[in-house]
Amino acid sequence: IYTVLLLFTISVSSQKSINEDPEILQNRINHRITQSQTALENYNYFEAENNIDKALELAEKLKNKKSEGIIYTLKGRLKLLTEEEDNAIKSLSKAIEIQRIIKDDANLANSYKTLGEVYARKKDYSQAADYFKSAKNLFQEEGLNLGLTETLLAEGKTYIQFKNYRKARAIIEQCLAEAKKIGSLKIQSDVLI
After folding, report:
1. Gap between the terminal Cα atoms of the chain
2. How far is Cα 33 from Cα 150, in angstroms, rounded to an integer?
3. 70, 98 in Cβ contact below 8 A?
4. CB neighbour list of residue 24: distance below 8 Å, 6 or more residues apart
5. Who contacts 171 (Cβ-Cβ below 8 Å, separation ≥6)?
6. pLDDT of residue 193
7. How many CB atoms lie under 10 A from the CB of residue 63?
8. Angle between the N-to-C axes of helices 185-192 and 165-182, in degrees from 0 to 180, rounded to the nearest 10
9. pLDDT digit string, tens, across residues 51-78
10. Residue 20 carries which DSSP code?
11. Backbone CA torsion sign across 8, 9, 15, 18
């Protein structure tokens, strides 16, 4: 009986330590983030939200601010896609706050870009353009050419909505040049459509 009890106690304590191991928790967070990004790309918003919520719970448990910021950005993107602009703004504002504090400029740029898209959807083109400019500057500083190119495209489209065609053309031409430089056929075709 003592042997069985001892084995049971060892098993339970080792399971508990496995569940609280920071490396394992971080792997779970990363897996959930990847799963939610895939679900977003496949328009499976329910699954994306489920994975985002579980990832956020793990990140908060681990107190990993970088992961929290990424997750809030994903949540903002999800809310944008499901046309919940006000909730998108709340999530993105939270992401931006975290990313500013920890100086995570690469992810901060992505949050600014997404927030610009939200304001463009709300037809607040001035605010959208401001966020796109902030994103563009950070993407340039970080050397993230794909993010820069995507932001240029969104910014150009925003200036079209502003009916500032001269500015839109200059930005779209810059976007096309950047897309050719990095070999992004998708963005090149998006520019030409």
Report:
1. 75
2. 21
3. no
4. 18
5. 152, 155, 156, 159
6. 72
7. 9
8. 160
9. 999 999 999 999 999 999 999 999 999 9
10. T
11. negative
Provide the residue type at 19 as one letter.
N
Res. 173: pLDDT tops 90:
yes
Q: Name which of 154, 140, 162 is nearest 187 in CA terms.
A: 154
Better-scored residue on pLDDT, 5 or 116: 116
- Single-letter amino acid code for the residue at 39: A
pLDDT (tens digit, 9 = 90+) per residue, 98-134?
999 999 999 999 999 999 999 999 999 999 999 999 9
Structure tokens at 19: 């569940």
Q: pTM for the complete prediction?
A: 0.85
Answer positive or negative: Cα dihedral of 164, 170, 175, 176: positive
